[in-house]
Fold this protein.
Amino acid sequence: MSETGFVHAENLHRTYSVRRGLFGRARALHAVSGVSFEIPKGETFGLVGESGSGKSTIARMLLAAEPATSGQVRIGDLVLGSLDASGEKRLRRTVQPVLQDPYSALSPHLRVAGIVGEPLGAHGLRQGAERDPYIDSILNSVGLASSLRRRYPRELSGGQRQRVAIARALALEPQALVLDEPVSALDVSVQAQILNLLKDLQRERGLSYLLISHDLAVVAYMASRVGVLYLGEMMEQGTRDDVIRRARHPYTQALIASSEAGLDGPVAARGEIPSPLDLPPGCLFEPRCPHASARCRNERPALRPLSATHRIACHFDLPAVDAVSSADASLS
């Protein structure tokens, strides 16, 4: 990996042992297999794919909520998996999550000021008379009036709750945020407001984002680099223009075809995503791919370069598909 990135994930694997029934034989479930990417300081890496593709598993590994089976995650000078107690505390201040459902992510028993101030108390920061003005400044930075500090989450709208969740994440002044489907639970009318807020905060604070989404339009709007994940493996990876404007993998093209933008072009992927306990022997996407051949059924394609920045895991050289105009329009 290069030295320009602030977040590095290199050859990540996450395998679980799964047993069917009380006396069933344990089998390996490969949730993430050989995934690598980096996020430069102040940029966004968008990770897109269907449910079950391994996106949230990668998020948990970056947050040290669960360890990688193999591979390495480095955030700044912190190497996850080898941190002592002091390093773990530094990590919590360096990277923070913003989750999908702000209502379930916020304690219903705490008022807004308590929610935003909770991580400060855990780290012994902004004590005494300094705390209330600081909490007010954080609330104002996410577009919330200080008068909301005494409200409970149930008294807020969905957009306001997500702004509180973002404020809580910012309280420790992190350098990176893991955004796991941050707008999927919100009304469409509110989604663009939250995404624009996140862009503004990134520009003001130099934040690095890992943005996880099943929505190609959200990723196209936010990300400078994009990875397309399927059954735990990277199918296509590159700059935003590489993947969104010049999509070359059949799975990426299927996501584009089935997006809300309703683009004409490639046929959307047929069937359902296979069980990760029963993976195809060749290309993982072969059972659903309209271009599959005998080679695809028997030979797993490696992630190969198309240019200095663009890579795909496919045996074919398909014509590129452009989704960027429709993706931008849907969030403008």
